[in-house]
Write a structure and sequence with these properties.
Elements: E1 2-8, E2 11-16, E3 28-37, H1 41-45, E4 60-68, E5 80-83, H2 93-96, E6 130-133, H3 136-139, E7 141-143, H4 152-156, H5 161-171, E8 179-183, H6 187-198, E9 203-208, H7 211-219, E10 223-226, H8 232-242, H9 244-248, E11 260-265, H10 284-292, E12 293-301, H11 315-318, H12 326-332, E13 335-338, H13 347-355, E14 367-370, H14 374-383, E15 391-394
Parallel strand pairs: 8-9, 8-11, 9-10, 11-12, 12-13, 14-15
Antiparallel strand pairs: 1-2, 3-4, 3-6, 3-15, 4-5, 5-7
Helix pairs in contact: 5-6, 8-10
């Protein structure tokens, strides 16, 4: 089968690898119709997290079931399915409590397993024609329709970034009437905004400095904040206090709450400095959150922070040691939630929101390309050129097709 294979820093190739096969009675074999390139794939592509050459990439996957093991009961050949990027056994101590992001069975080295990703076990990714899915009854979410229909892209995003954006809103405590500041207008940040609005937020600000991304923020129905024009903390505070309705609703002393109640980090350890935007500061978003989240508010850190970063800005950053403005968080009594999304906690009801027309996460998709175009797609996505914001690979499409 054809698959996207990691060959070294900033190099992937599409080549023939051994076909995926049923290896256990609980396995399901899926013929892939769509597989997304995730921003976190770029961490491996750029050499910012260790990964072995020869790894087949791809943790955002969906397709049609081609074969099932003898013990599979609920999933059938011909079912259209989307696969959470976390692979779960469904019955270990963590899975049984809903923490499928920390399965204790499927990764011999740590808690948590995934497809085609550094440190998440021996499982090949789905940027390929076929994918073996362990514990198929647990890890397949059944979908209506057929490959290539008008919900294909929406359903694919149930594999990772739509639930991840929703989880960010959950971590930050977003609810009806909430004020929200999201740092990062990449796919996860945009879907955190989409999720916040679905959950009833009153004001959603999204911070970035890339014009195209800020335009997508408007398309999502949120308020763009360009940090190239000054401190985003001050911009959000000034904007809120300049609104006579917001100011007029405040009682004495409530101007101290002119920030937001919910803050989301959708950037992670590759954040760029406020004052020198061509340089990294892995703590930059944490500093902004400490400034903009009100006393008694909540912050959700969904942006990735690795325990090892070969490209870190200093010796501490290379070992995942990042300075946290803990004093300000503590003084304000801000609750902090963080970690990988347990996709199965959300994907079923998010699927039903898509079916009902209440959610359309596919507004973030910029390109749909055949699998053979993966090397070009990775290069352009990595360099953020030609509007490459979210790329979906289509293994079923013939070379040269464009969508």
């Amino acid at each position: 089968m054809k698959a996207v294979v990691f060959k070294g820093e900033r190099k992937v190739e599409v080549e023939d690898v051994e076909d995926a096969r049923i290896a256990s009675a609980t396995d399901v074999l899926v013929r892939i119709s769509s597989s997304g390139i995730c921003g976190s794939d770029l961490h491996m592509y750029e050499g910012r997290t260790p990964v072995e050459k020869g790894t087949v990439f791809g943790h955002e996957n969906m397709g049609v079931v081609e074969a099932i093991g003898d013990a599979v009961q609920q999933i059938q050949v011909g079912d259209r399915v989307v696969l959470p990027f976390n692979i779960a056994c469904g019955s270990c101590f963590n899975c049984a409590r809903g923490y499928t992001n920390a399965c204790l069975v499927l990764n011999p080295d740590s808690a948590g397993a995934g497809y085609g990703y550094s440190g998440m076990g021996p499982h090949r990714g789905g940027q390929a024609e076929l994918l073996r899915v362990p514990f198929g009854d647990v890890n397949c979410l059944k979908l209506p329709g057929e490959p290539g229909d008008n919900l294909e892209d929406d359903f694919l995003l149930l594999s990772d970034i739509f639930p991840t954006g929703y989880h960010a809103a959950e971590l930050a405590g977003v609810g009806p009437g909430s004020t929200v500041a999201i740092f990062g207008a990449g796919p996860v940040g945009l879907l955190a905004a989409h999720s916040s609005l679905i959950r009833g937020a009153a004001e959603v600000y999204v911070v970035d400095d890339i014009p195209e991304r800020l335009q997508r923020v408007k398309k999502a129905g949120a308020i763009p904040i360009d940090f190239s024009k000054g401190s985003p903390v001050e911009q959000i505070r000034d904007r809120r206090l300049a609104n006579p309705l917001v100011r007029g609703a405040m009682r004495r002393g409530e101007e101290k709450m002119s920030g937001v109640m919910c803050g989301i980090d959708a950037v992670g350890y590759q954040a760029r400095r406020e004052d020198e935007r061509d340089r990294e500061n892995p703590a930059q978003v944490l500093e902004w959150l400490a400034g903009i989240v009100n006393p008694t508010g909540k912050a959700g850190l969904i942006g990735v922070y690795f325990p090892e970063d070969p490209g870190g800005v200093d010796a501490n950053a290379k070992e995942g040691h990042i300075t946290l403005p803990l004093g300000r968080f503590w003084e304000k009594g801000i609750e902090i939630g963080m970690g990988q999304c347990p996709v199965k906690k959300y994907n079923l009801f998010l699927r039903d929101l898509i079916i009902a027309g209440r959610a359309r996460p596919s507004f973030i998709v910029s390109h749909r390309l055949p699998l053979v175009d993966a090397p070009v797609a990775y290069d352009k996505f990595d360099r953020r050129v030609e509007g490459f914001t979210k790329v979906i690979l289509k293994p079923m499409e013939r070379p040269g097709a464009r969508a």
